[in-house]
Design brief:
The chain has 336 residues and is an alpha/beta fold. The chain is 44% helix and 16% strand.
Length: 336
């Protein structure tokens, strides 16, 4: 347990100076305050819950809560994290990255210390157990993602349900009648991760509306799993002509697996995806895809939380409309 005397020793000041900086009872020079703030962050000191962030000042740090659970696509998470950091620097703020699965404890630790002024929370679940605490905290928070009941929270994200709808509608317009969703790893659905669930619902509803036969297939994020799923789809769904991929890690391996099995993309099978533009563009067969706007979402989350810190009213829901870019991976379906 780090004590106030440890912070004082590290910052080169007295314990009473640290106490005054925390309580605001006496003025502290800006240089001394900055040294104390740096020592608190470095040592992980946790003042008493009643001692708010350095009185009369802020830490100028935002906490980005992104637990690296199993099934999480780290490259995609990294894009969002970079976008948050970049946007935070425009406000002269740093970002504290919290990657452990700590639930209430991790959020409470940040809230009860001077570590961060506000929180941005990722990997939101439909029935996220952290939501009651986030609603009760006395510091601002923004969720990247939409839980089932977002009332009283501030959320921003791509409209994943509409994104899936857009992919299915594109395939339907090309005449495809049998489609499949290659989704996230199974554990992502077991946890009830919000964006994955929204994609499934959007995909299924759109396929039903267009009178298409559809199926959903979670897939581990490995080339071997992509190959096994391609073989299974060809065996169990021989009439399949359209695929929506919502799993960036298997996008290229899946296309390779189909073609190794004698299925041409897009001659025999049209492939769409929800993924970053870079992934869609660099594929051997450039993929028709709905862009994953990590930069816009990350910047939007930071803008919202900074407005909340200033006491400016913000909308509870900020939804980014999906944009589909047609590339070489889709073509008209077979004539029936």
């Amino acid at each position: 347990m780090v004590r106030i005397t440890d912070v004082a020793r590290h910052a080169g000041v007295s314990a009473s100076t640290v106490s005054y900086a925390l309580s605001g009872k006496r003025p502290i020079s800006a240089e001394t305050r900055q040294r104390i703030e740096a020592s608190i962050r470095l040592l992980g000191y946790r003042p008493h819950a009643g001692a708010r962030a350095l009185a009369g000042s802020r830490s100028k740090v935002l906490a980005l809560v992104v637990p690296l659970r199993t099934g999480v696509d780290v490259p995609v998470v990294t894009r969002f994290a970079v976008s948050v950091v970049t946007a935070a620097r425009r406000y002269d703020h740093d970002v504290l990255l919290l990657t452990q699965e700590e639930g209430h404890e991790g959020l409470r630790r940040v809230a009860d210390t001077a570590l961060a002024d506000a929180l941005i929370v990722m990997d939101v679940q439909l029935r996220d157990p952290r939501l009651p605490l986030l609603r009760a905290l006395d510091r601002p928070s923004v969720l990247i993602g939409f839980p089932a009941a977002p009332g009283g929270l501030t959320c921003v994200d791509l409209d994943f349900r509409a994104a899936a709808d857009l992919c299915v509608g594109h395939l339907a317009g090309l005449g495809h009648r049998v489609v499949a969703l290659v989704g996230s790893p199974p554990e992502v659905y077991v946890r009830g991760t919000a964006f994955a669930q929204h994609v499934v619902r959007g995909f299924t509803a759109a396929a039903d509306r267009h009178g298409m036969s559809s199926s959903v297939h979670p897939c581990e994020a490995t080339p071997a799993a992509a190959r096994a799923l391609a073989e299974r789809l060809l065996r169990e769904r021989p009439a399949l002509t359209g695929v929506v991929v919502h799993n960036e890690a298997v996008l290229a391996p899946l296309v390779d697996a189909f073609e190794a099995l004698g299925v041409r993309v897009p001659g025999d099978l049209s492939v769409t995806a929800i993924c970053p533009d870079e992934s869609a563009e660099r594929a051997r067969v450039p993929v028709t895809a709905v862009s994953l706007p990590s930069a816009e979402v990350g910047a939007g989350a930071v803008d919202l939380v900074m407005r909340k810190l200033r006491g400016t009213p913000v909308p509870e829901a900020t939804v980014l409309e999906p944009r589909l870019t047609e590339r070489s991976s889709t073509a008209p379906g077979p004539v029936r």
